[in-house]
Write a sequence for this structure.
């Protein structure tokens, strides 16, 4: 299966321009609330109509503004699990599933498909319950079962874990990965959670302000997010404007640090992830004062300021508790390896 999207939609002060492709894989749209990722999903599903563009699902054009093609959601064979699950509140679990299977005209085949998803998701004892009588995890299973019983060509997941607590989220992530593996077709996951995206998806498209800023394999996107927005969305906490110096080095304006980097001449910002900072001397080493020591459950976050740079914004460094117990002091030497410094465009 495959998905190809190139659409535009003007929403007044917000202009969505989304273009990407996916094969038999899980592709995640990673972005903050309001960036356009859920609107993109709704346009693919046929719930919203783009102003212009083209959407192709497994070689079949489901929307084309120039050719006047705009298939209904039912015709698109796209399965959607919405953030609030969108179960019919006046229907039991069994009725919700039968509604999902209504495309199948043969009654025996329809009932067999419903029985199969009931068994697959362990819902046999819940058939007579209504959505308000189900837990969040049970509602998600029913929503997934209702989508899959319709035999969709692609699966769209809109923030599927956002309404769940952390323990239940972890358990259902495991189940969802197995569902995706068995589905074996194109899956588009929409999320603002970078850890969730990294665990669930093979490929990532970073979206900000209605546009895809960076797309590719997850490891490459996290290693080189490309833009300031991409770095923030992938969890980089240390970001500073840069100033180029005459000797070829750059100055991290916020941190008061002069650094040697692999400058490409296009970047306006520098970034380094807190866990990529190294103790001791080496490339781009600085003696810093410990401004603040923050204890996390399994690590420490240290806020550091280079000596002699009292007006600089502190840079964050995260390291495990045992390592900090060995190094603890009012001052510490750190290095920012050149290979770990992110060069970021605006």
């Amino acid at each position: 299966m495959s998905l190809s999207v190139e659409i535009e939609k003007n929403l007044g002060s917000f202009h969505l321009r989304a273009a990407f492709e996916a094969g038999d894989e899980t592709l995640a749209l990673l972005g903050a609330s309001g960036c356009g990722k859920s609107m993109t999903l709704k346009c693919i599903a046929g719930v919203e109509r783009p102003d212009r563009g083209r959407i192709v699902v497994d070689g079949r054009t489901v929307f084309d503004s120039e050719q006047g093609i705009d298939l209904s959601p039912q015709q698109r064979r796209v399965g959607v699990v919405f953030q609030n699950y969108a179960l019919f509140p006046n229907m039991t679990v069994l009725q919700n599933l039968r509604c999902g299977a209504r495309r199948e005209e043969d009654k025996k085949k329809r009932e067999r498909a419903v029985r199969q998803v009931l068994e697959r998701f362990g819902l046999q004892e819940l058939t007579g319950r209504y959505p308000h009588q189900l837990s969040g995890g049970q509602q998600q299973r029913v929503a997934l079962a209702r989508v899959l019983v319709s035999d969709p060509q692609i699966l769209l997941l809109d923030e599927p874990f956002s309404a769940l607590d952390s323990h239940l989220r972890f358990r259902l992530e495991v189940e969802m990965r197995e569902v995706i593996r068995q589905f074996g077709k194109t899956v588009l996951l929409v999320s603002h959670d970078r850890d969730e995206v990294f665990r669930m998806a093979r490929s990532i498209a970073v979206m900000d302000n209605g546009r895809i800023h960076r797309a590719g394999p997850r490891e490459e996107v996290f290693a080189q997010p490309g833009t300031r927005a991409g770095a923030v969305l992938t969890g980089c906490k240390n970001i500073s404007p840069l100033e180029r110096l005459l000797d070829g080095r750059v100055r991290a304006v916020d941190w008061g640090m002069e650094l040697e980097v692999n400058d490409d001449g296009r970047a306006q910002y520098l970034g380094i992830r807190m866990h990529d900072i190294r103790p001791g001397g080496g490339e781009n080493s600085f003696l810093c004062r410990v401004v603040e020591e923050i204890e996390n459950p399994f690590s420490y976050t240290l806020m550091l300021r280079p000596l002699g740079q009292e007006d600089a914004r502190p840079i964050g460094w995260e390291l495990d508790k045992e390592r900090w117990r060995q190094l603890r002091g009012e001052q510490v030497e750190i290095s920012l390896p050149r290979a770990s410094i992110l060069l970021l465009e605006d």
Remarks:
- The longest helix spans residues 166-183.
- The mean pLDDT is 93.
